[in-house]
Amino acid sequence: MANQVSTSAELLDYITSVSLRDDEILRGLREETAGLPGGTTLPVAAEEGQLLALLVSLTQARTVLEIGTYTGYSTLCMARALPLDGRIVTCDVTDKWPSVGREYWKRAGVADRIEVRVGRATETLDALLADAGFGPDSFDLVFVDADKANYPAYYEQALRLVRPGGLVVIDNTLFFGRVIDPTAQDPDTVAVRELNARLFTDDRVELSLLPAADGITLVRRTAV
């Protein structure tokens, strides 16, 4: 009974039926996104979006940083969980895809909580670290879901931007199971594998890798 439960399609359907609280706005953005390039693989699943919203609520986050927006489904989920004066800064290399989500953000009444910053993520994060309005220790929660080759760099920047006691959530840390395939030596897989190894020995944080979706790692910053 202590072992991991094997999940069949039927069991996943059951889990969705008893846990996913969906609505028209969320479904609408998912459906529009599904028709776009990468639209069935790049966004988080609806269940993961709901988990992100719960994590925002549990941590009582007022400031959230998202690295990787795409069409803003996860952005929407987290923004709805913020208090009225909360703020989420979401970063993407282009404004093309976040613009898809803006109408849904407006319909959900959270557009005023969302700031999109466009550019290379490493440069955007450096700018946030130097920004008088933000700077180190300024975010309660950081969600990392961008290009995998830069995950180690994003993690180090995120750890500086999140406050002590704050949470960093990293998506795709099992990367389709490729992390355990020794023949998988592409830059994305190597970077995810490197980050996982680094996290395990990082005494600045507490962590748990959840075997859900494509691997979700929760990292709580403990060092001041």
Low-confidence stretches: none
Spatial shape: globular
- Portion in helices: 25-40%
Give the integer mean of the pLDDT values: 95
Which percent range describes the beta-strand content? 15-25%
Alpha plus pi helix count:
8
The multimeric state of the shown protein is single chain
Q: SS-based structural class?
A: alpha/beta
Pfam families: Methyltransf_3 (PF01596)
Protein name: Class I SAM-dependent methyltransferase
InterPro entries: Cation-dep_OMT, SAM-dependent_MTases_sf, SAM_O-MeTrfase
GO molecular function, one term: methyltransferase activity
Could you walk me through the main structural features you see in this protein, from its secondary elements to its overall organization?
With 224 residues, the protein is of the alpha/beta class. Helix content is 40%, strand content 20%. The chain has helices at 9-19, 24-34, 46-58, 73-81, 98-107, 121-130, 151-161, 187-200; strands spanning 63-67, 87-92, 114-118, 139-144, 162-171, 205-210, 216-221. Strands 3-2-1-4-5-7-6 form a seven-stranded mixed beta sheet, with helices on both faces. Helix 2 (24-34) runs antiparallel to helix 5 (98-107), helix 3 (46-58) packs parallel to helix 4 and helix 6 packs parallel to helix 7. The longest helix is centred in the C-terminal third of the chain and has 14 residues, at 187-200. It has eight helices and seven strands; from the N terminus they run H-H-H-E-H-E-H-E-H-E-H-E-H-E-E. InterPro entries: Cation-dep_OMT, SAM-dependent_MTases_sf, SAM_O-MeTrfase. One of its GO terms (molecular function) is methyltransferase activity. Keywords: Methyltransferase, S-adenosyl-L-methionine, Transferase. It comes from Streptomyces endocoffeicus. This is Class I SAM-dependent methyltransferase.
